[in-house]
Amino acid sequence: MDYQKILEDIYQEILPYSKDGKQADYIPALAKVNPDQFGMCLETVTGEIFTHKQADTRFSIQSITKVFTLAMCLSIKGEALWKRVGKEPSGTAFNSLVQLEVEKGIPRNPFINAGAIVLSDILISELENPEEEFLSFVRALCGNDEIDYNMEVALSEREKGYLNAAIANMLKYHGTIDNDIERVLMFYFKMCSVEMSCRELAKASLAFTNHSPFEYAGYKLSKSRIKRLNAVMQTCGFYDEAGEFSYLVGLPGKSGVGGGIIAVYPHRYSVAVWSPRLNSKGNSVMGMKALELLTTYTEESIF
Ligand code: GLU
Question: Ligand 1 center to residue 280 CA distance, Å?
């Protein structure tokens, strides 16, 4: 399969959409990003790497971080994790309060904000140095010790994070989080602020293709757990557009409001794409199109 040519053809085909959508501006630091950027990287399990455009530009991974948080929590808690958070698609926005209230503070899944805030609370309870441990884990996944938090983005999100604070307060009210609200929120915002490039994200996601034993920085997951983690990405990875992504792309994946998307083709490859302009559901316009064309041109998907 000539993935290099396919990435180049895809880019030409999605150029007409390059001005569609707009970048996330509810986090002031993200509003400053140049929206007219695009990068893509595909890495196969045999170690071949294909890139196009700005595959080495780092960006705010935002909710893609939730995959790493889930992997750590599953490694620590195993199946008991699902007592604290559900694994059903939410069908509502990533920051919705309504569902959380109706369901008495048990988040639908780990990939909506409420779920990830609960997972942040778990890591704070379980680990002596959660910030350091999280970075070590992500650094090990992509084999790069430069990966770091961007404190400007984290603090900027905290400053305007009224809705996430409301979610954390409701979780605390229902007894779903144990630690101090401020501590939990700041750790959550820090994890969202991590910056990585498409090349680094593709490398990190390769671990989720299940092609070799999963053990990074001491965190282990069995093949069966990786399978289940992929199932949660497939059903819950794209906010209230998870069905649409599944329909168009046919791979498990996760997006973030920084405009990044990762997707995994089990036992074959991982791919990361980035372009900051988002559609109304919070997913990258060009990123979604690029992945739709990738599985269409290659005729490869899990279905
Ligand atoms: N830090 C963002 C928030 O909590 C993450 C949202 C996302 O990427 O979906 O609003």
Answer: 14
The pocket around ligand 1, CB under 6 angstroms, is made up of: 62-63, 94-95, 113, 157, 164, 192, 256-257, 282
Q: Is 303 domain-assigned?
A: no
What is the pTM (predicted TM-score) of this model?
Answer: 0.97
* 255 alpha carbon – ligand 1 mean position (Å): 10
CA-wise closest residue to 59 among 253, 275, 282: 275
Q: Which residues contact 140 (CB under 8 A, 6 or more apart)?
A: 216, 217
Q: Residue 113 Cα, ligand 1 centroid: separation in angstroms?
A: 7
Q: The tokens of 75 are what? A: 């490694």
CATH of the domain at 38: 3.40.710.10
Inside any domain, residue 154: yes
The ligand 1 atom at the shortest distance from the C-alpha of residue 189 is 1
Ligand 1 midpoint to CA 78 (Å) = 25
Question: Does any domain span residue 211?
Answer: yes
Q: How many domains does the chain have?
A: 1
pLDDT by residue, tens only, the chain of 303 residues? 899 999 999 999 999 999 999 999 999 999 999 999 999 999 999 999 999 999 999 999 999 999 999 999 999 999 999 999 999 998 888 888 999 999 899 999 999 999 999 999 999 999 999 999 999 999 999 999 999 999 999 999 999 999 999 999 999 999 999 999 999 999 999 999 999 999 999 999 999 999 999 999 999 999 999 999 999 999 999 988 999 999 999 999 999 999 999 999 999 999 999 999 999 999 999 999 999 999 999 999 999
Query: To 10 degrees, what angle do helices 65-77 and 181-193 make?
Result: 120
Q: Which atom of ligand 1 is nearest to the CA of 239?
A: 9
> Does residue 238 lie in a domain region?
yes
